[in-house]
Amino acid sequence: MHRRRSKGKTSAGFSLIEMLIAITLSALLLGMVHSLFIYGATTFARNEKQTLLQQDIRFAARVISDAVRYARQLDILDAVPTTPSDTIYIFAKQGQIMRFSASGDNIIAALPEGTYNIEFHIPSVGKELKFTITGSFGQENYSLSSSVIGLNLENDLPVAHGDILRLQEVN
Fold first, then answer.
1. What is the chain's Cα-based Rg?
2. What is the residue-wise DSSP string for 93-159?
3. What pTM value is reported for the model?
4. Could you report the per-residue pLDDT of 118-153, keeping only the tens digit for each?
């Protein structure tokens, strides 16, 4: 007995068109997944820079606030003397926030590619000091303004504005 063959298609696989459509859809899907991954990694890196910048500036503000709060004397200067005595100087230099004293330099805040600026302001005669710290790290910028009252200051502070703070700590 002979078998009859049907005249219709009886292929048991995918046609060339079906394979091309499947490959194209897979490539589009992989492209979208890759784009989302790159976007997520970029966002994470940017947020990490912003977090480091904010953390450094907040730490510097805390150090400055504590130093001012418990200082015995306080001045705002235009330049840092080359030979300090028993005084402490706080200022921004070469993109870092520095604490300079007779015992040497201490870096309060520094990022490899970041820059910082600090401004001190005594708005009126009294014991209040206001300061603003600004920083940038790549395209990220952050600014923090604060004020602190000197609890142990011997005299009222005169009105002043500058970028170098000189203080004497209580012994």
1. 32
2. ETTEEEEEETTEEEEEE--TTEEEEEEEEE-SSBSEEEEEEEEEETTEEEEEEEEEE-SS-SSPBPP
3. 0.73
4. 999 999 989 999 999 999 887 888 999 999 999 988
